[in-house]
Specification:
single chain; 7 helices; mainly alpha
């Protein structure tokens, strides 16, 4: 368990460039793991925060005490996962082309509208 906590701390330090003392964060890392969160979740949220901080006037904090507040982290993780799904869906050239083809002209029938809606929904939900 200690190695897992230390690995999380090292991943946080590498991803943020911050170096908080491990001893002061160990309890928070333990709670993080107990909440069934992992390093992948941590790095996803940190990546999402960095992107959001570049795009927006509002700046999300990368301070460890803010980030490891589990309620706060849970909401950030939800946003980060949605961002990741959208990125993956739009990153696939076939899905991107299908979206362009279906949305580049006005639909002519109700069936076409339903088809367009279905294609968009599947692309955004990362389905094939």
């Amino acid at each position: 368990m200690h190695q897992t906590l230390k690995a999380l701390h090292n991943a946080y330090c590498s991803a943020t460039g911050q170096q908080p003392p491990y001893a002061t964060c160990e309890r928070r890392w333990f709670e993080f793991v107990q909440a069934d969160l992992n390093q992948t979740d941590l790095l996803l949220v940190i990546s999402w925060i960095k992107v959001q901080n570049k795009k927006n006037d509002y700046q999300y904090s990368l301070r460890i005490d803010k980030l490891l507040d589990l309620e706060h982290f849970g909401s950030l993780l939800g946003e980060a996962r949605a961002w990741q799904r959208k990125r993956q869906a739009l990153g696939d050239p076939n899905k991107r082309q299908a979206l362009k083809e279906f949305t580049s002209r006005e639909p002519e029938t109700t069936t076409e509208i339903k088809l367009i809606r279905d294609v968009c929904r599947r692309a955004l939900n990362n389905e094939t």
